[in-house]
Amino acid sequence: MSHESSPLPLTSSAGAPLTGTIKVPGDKSISHRSLMFGALAVGRTTVKGLLESEDVLATAEAMRAVGAVINKQADGTYTIDGIGLGSLLEPESVIDFGNAGTGVRLTMGILGSHNIAATFVGDASLSKRPMGRVLNPLRDMGTNVIARDGDRLPASIKGPEQALPITYRVPMPSAQVKSAVLLAGLNAPGVTTVIEPIATRDHTEKMLKGFGADISVSLNEAGERVIKLTGQPELEPQDIEVPSDPSSAAFPIVAALITPGSDVTIESVLLNEHRTGLITTLIEMGGKIEILNRRETGGEELGDIHVKASHLKGITVPASRAPSMIDEYPVLAIAAAFAEGDTFMPGLDELRVKESDRLAAVARGLEANGIPCVETEDTLTVTGGANNIGGGTVTTHLDHRIAMSFLVLGMAAHKPVTVDDGAVIQTSFPTFTSLFEKMGAKISANSSEAA
Ligand code: S3P
Q: What is the dihedral angle through the alpha carbons of 113, 99, 432, 360, rounded to the nearest 10 degrees?
């Protein structure tokens, strides 16, 4: 699942206002976890609305490799016949996670406390990303690890005969690290404790509870989240409906705000409080965004998001908000390019270790399109309102969110914007181009025609 051999340049250009009611695909975080927890339960889990993107399909393959039977039914529902915690089979060959950081890190957690060997590989982007943040707590639990220098992929692990439950304070705000430790704790006897000084998305905790695990969350005196999980539960299969991904909804939301005359509704979007930082920020910037039809399904809040083109103003985004919008900074930078004045975004150090160094990739992309910005080690300032923006070609570095963000820029810029590789969008949002075309956007696979 590598895009390195077949890049697909795409160009977007300004056209009519964006209009209509759309639905973006299922949430990526919940889709990965549905497949994983279904594989660990005994019996049949069903999943409606699974995100069928390359990242999530790589997780399905990995769960098949350890013995789960996963099928798509005629009505689109996925069934997962789980093999049960503690009974996972040793994979017969290397597990290729392509571009998927969540997939590989959470699967390392699951397999790391099982007494089986597994080897993980990924594409050029995933092979640069730090895995020590997950491998180190696994080492503490007794897992043997052999990894490339700097704890990068390829990496091989073999879990001990019996893993040790640990108490682990997560050193960086990362739901993947928190989740990997909890998932390893599932197959360790006794109580695994994760202390989370800064709260991150809580899908693992909520969904494990739904599958019947004994898991509790409390706050300690310092206000840190303390998550306690009792190992070796019998997980019960579930029927899951995956809500639409707020991180994918971010693209039509920003595109509608910055494209004059636009009026768009995005239906049934997940509104988990750890995922909605972008919406809060855009409303503070003056964005006309209303949440309609708020409701609850499967323990998560959902709503329809109605967005109209708006006059935006630059603001300072509190650093404390970063975990609730960590994947949305690239597209926020595009909104900031159309806002009056400066938008200052501090607390961005984690952006350096995403699918690309997103801070640098965004800054270079803005510069290539004539948008003034200042990048420091962990901050970005974007000055909005420049004249004659666009016309550049953006290097995506195998990063889907860089590709999609700069295509959104081209929809409202004075000149078309080209991204060097749109193929990587398949990792999270396969219907991106068709959905945007349905709303009236102009995206072309042939840059010379569009320009
Ligand atoms: C995710 C956690 C975040 C996020 C990623 C999905 C998850 O990563 O960026 O897209 O599903 O747990 P980090 O844990 O590295 O912050």
A: 120
Q: Is residue 55 part of a domain?
A: yes
- Probe target for ligand 1 pocket from 106, 107, 326, 400, with the most ligand atoms within 8 Å of CB: 326
Same domain (yes/no): 247, 234? no
CATH number, domain of 164, equals 3.65.10.10
367 and 327, same domain (yes or no):
yes
> From the CA of 176, how far away is ligand 1's center (Å)?
5
| Helix axes of 246-258 and 329-337: crossing angle, nearest 10 degrees | 10
How many Cα atoms within 13 Å fall on the side-chain side of residue 163?
A: 35
The residues carrying an active-site annotation are: 327
Binding residues for 3-phosphoshikimate: 28-29, 33, 174, 176, 327, 354
Could you give the number of structural domains in the chain? 2
Q: What is the DSSP letter of 91?
A: P
- Measured from the CB, is residue 102 less than 6 Å from ligand 1? yes
Q: Which atom of ligand 1 is nearest to the CA of 29?
A: 11
pTM (2 d.p.): 0.97
Residue 204 near ligand 1, beta carbon < 6 Å: no
- Lateral strand order in the sheet of 225-230: 167-169, 191-196, 225-230, 214-219
Is 1 part of any domain?
A: no
Domain identity same for 21 and 44: no
CA pair distance 313, 260, nearest whole angstrom: 15
Give domain status of residue 45, yes or no.
Answer: yes
pLDDT tens by residue, the chain, 451 residues? 455 568 999 999 999 999 999 999 999 999 999 999 999 999 999 999 999 999 999 999 999 999 999 999 999 999 999 999 999 999 999 999 999 999 999 999 999 999 999 999 999 999 999 999 999 999 999 999 999 999 999 999 999 999 999 999 999 999 999 999 999 999 999 999 999 999 999 999 999 999 999 999 999 999 999 999 999 999 999 999 999 999 999 999 999 999 999 999 999 999 999 999 999 999 999 999 999 999 998 889 999 999 999 999 999 999 999 999 999 999 999 999 999 999 999 999 999 999 999 999 999 999 999 999 999 999 999 999 999 999 999 999 999 999 999 999 999 999 999 999 999 999 999 999 999 999 999 999 964 444 3
The whole domain housing 372 covers 10-26+243-450
Atom of ligand 1 nearest to the CA of 247: 10
Q: Does 324 contact ligand 1 (Cβ within 6 A)?
A: no
CA 425 to ligand 1 centroid distance, Å: 17
What letter would DSSP give residue 33?
H
Residue 5 resides in a domain: no
| Cis amide prior to 154 (ω within 30 degrees) | yes
